[in-house]
């Protein structure tokens, strides 16, 4: 069920044990070849596919389209809210849902810059509402084992607008991908202990904005992207998310 397509009365009649899903995304530069909406389109696509698989066991909220993207502001078109705003906005949406009696909540994130503050928010809400089951995941984390089998680019290949996001966009919205502007990796090298990508964490975090990390605003290798790979990634992520929803739904 889709939260904002129901009437207030229909929401009132629902079983409060249904998991409620909130997509948190971003509106930011995605290199020369992908649109600013990439993270929102990916997050909403996953939530739509997941909902198609289990429509009566999931309640989908309207997505949060703008996230914490200060590190992308060096590139035109990026919109960003502060971490404080994110914590307030997303926190207040979740508090509203809890006030209506729902107690199983899933935050599905599609943007790296939301991860740290999202985790802080989860821990705060977890203490505020000990009776509520709160889950947060980022799509490339929830299916990480399977995604390792799918990637073909090696360390530094799956990052911002790289192999995976470009594959997903070729699958979801090929008309929005400018194929002739897909270039090989432009990652700027850093210390070995600071090298990381979507699938591989680093030994230490070393803050650099996107201008310092890349030449084009793309981190990773989009030349290895394809629409069939986007379908494989989708299958991996949806299978993993279905398990999360099922496990929460069955919790008493
Ligand atoms: Zn992205």
Brief sketch in words of this structure:
The protein is α/β, with parallel strands linked by helices and about 250 residues long. It has helices spanning about 10, 40-55, 85-100, 115-130, 140, 145-150, 165-170, 210-215, 225-250, and strands at about 20-25, 60, 105-110, 135-140. The protein contains 9 helices and 4 strands; from the N terminus they run H-E-H-E-H-E-H-E-H-H-H-H-H.
Tags for this model:
252 residues; alpha/beta; Rossmann fold; four-stranded parallel sheet; 9 helices; 40% helix; globular; binds zinc ion
> What ligand species are in this complex?
zinc ion
Mean pLDDT: 97
Low-pLDDT sequence parts: none
The percent range for strand residues is 5-15%
- Which homologous superfamily in CATH is the superfamily? Creatininase
CATH class: Alpha Beta
Order of helices and strands: HEHEHEHEHHHHH
Count of helical stretches: 9
Give the spatial strand order of the biggest sheet.
2-1-3-4
The helicity comes to: 40-55%
Q: What is the name of the CATH topology?
A: Rossmann fold
Radius of gyration: 18 Å
Shape: globular
The CATH architecture comes to 3-Layer(aba) Sandwich
The total of beta strands comes to 4
Terminal-residue CA separation: 20 Å
Please identify the structural class as seen in this structure.
alpha/beta
Major sheet summary line:
4 strands, parallel
Q: Domain count, please report it.
A: 1
């Amino acid at each position: 069920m889709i939260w904002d397509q129901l009437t207030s009365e229909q929401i009132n009649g629902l079983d409060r044990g249904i998991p409620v899903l909130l997509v948190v995304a971003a509106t930011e530069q995605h290199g020369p070849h992908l649109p600013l909406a990439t993270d929102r389109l990916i997050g909403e696509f996953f939530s739509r596919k997941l909902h198609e698989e289990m429509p009566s066991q999931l309640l989908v909220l309207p997505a949060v389209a703008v996230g914490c993207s200060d590190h992308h502001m060096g590139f035109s078109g990026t919109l960003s809210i502060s971490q404080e705003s994110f914590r307030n906005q997303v926190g207040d949406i979740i508090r509203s849902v809890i006030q209506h009696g729902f107690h199983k909540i899933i935050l599905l994130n599609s943007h790296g810059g939301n991860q740290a503050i999202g985790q802080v928010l989860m821990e705060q809400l977890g203490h505020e509402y000990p009776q509520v089951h709160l889950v947060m995941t980022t799509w490339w984390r929830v299916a990480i084992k399977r995604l390792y089998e799918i990637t073909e680019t090696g360390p530094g290949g799956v990052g911002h607008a790289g192999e995976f996001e470009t594959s997903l966009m070729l699958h979801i919205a090929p008309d929005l991908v400018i194929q002739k502007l897909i270039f090989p990796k432009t990652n700027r090298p850093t210390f070995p202990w600071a090298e990381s990508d979507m699938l591989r964490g680093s030994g230490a975090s070393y803050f650099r904005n996107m201008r310092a990390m890349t030449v084009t605003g793309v981190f990773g290798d989009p030349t290895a992207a394809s629409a069939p790979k986007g379908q494989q990634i989708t299958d991996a992520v949806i299978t993993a998310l279905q398990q999360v929803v099922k496990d929460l739904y069955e919790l008493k």
